[in-house]
Amino acid sequence: MRLKSLALGAVLGCLCLSAVSAQEEPQVVRQNQMKAIGQSMGALGAIAKGEKPYDAAVVQTALETIGTNAKAFPDQFPAGSESGSETEAAPAVWEKMDEFRAKSEKLAAEADKLLASVPADQAGVGAAMKALGATCGDCHETYRLKR
């Protein structure tokens, strides 16, 4: 009986979380994805600068987060989500969606490539930051509003 109660509780909890997630506006979802990428880049940057010691698990988690979010990111820009929730998305996202998607895929591919051979030291993380940062900066120049 107790096992059934626990299982039922877990199922209901998942359903409630799914309902909450489904209600989130795409602007909020994409902002959260960008925050996660930014935090991951920050973690990598701290290692690259020597502010934090090299930690392979931190590097791997950061690269996984960047890759996962970059793959899902373009799907969070449906028509009608051009404004609201203090979005910083530029109109160019919707005007050049194929190009935008390709740049997001490029970031994901770069993260996946680095993940396949996780940088082994501070210098490697610095090189990874340069590769990822160039892709991030290129996209931000065109597809993010300057505030």
In words, what does this structure look like?
With 147 residues, the protein is mainly α. The chain has a single domain (26-143), classed as Four Helix Bundle (Hemerythrin (Met), subunit A). 73% of the residues lie in helices and 0% in strands. It contains six helices and no strands. The termini are far apart. The model is unreliable at 1-22 (pLDDT under 50). InterPro entries: Cyt_c/b562 (IPR010980), Cyt_c_II (IPR002321), Cyt_c_prime (IPR012127), Cyt_c_prime_subgr (IPR015984). This is Cytochrome C556. Keywords: Electron transport, Heme, Iron, Metal-binding, Signal, Transport. Residues 1-22 form the signal peptide.
Number of strands: 0
Number of domains: 1
Mean pLDDT: 88
Radius of gyration: 18 Å
Q: Which class best fits the helix and strand makeup? A: mainly alpha
Strand fraction equals under 5%
Instruction: Give the helix level as a range of percent.
Output: over 70%
Instruction: Give the SSE string.
Output: HHHHHH
Q: In whole angstroms, how far apart are the ends?
A: 57 Å
By CATH's scheme, which homologous superfamily applies?
Cytochrome c/b562
Distinct helical segment count: 6
Morphology call = elongated
The unreliable regions are 1-22
CATH class annotation: Mainly Alpha
CATH topology: Four Helix Bundle (Hemerythrin (Met), subunit A)
Main beta-sheet strand count, sense and barrel state: none
Shape-level CATH architecture: Up-down Bundle
Protein name: Cytochrome C556
Keywords: Electron transport, Heme, Iron, Metal-binding, Signal, Transport
Organism: Pseudorhizobium endolithicum
Signal peptide: 1-22
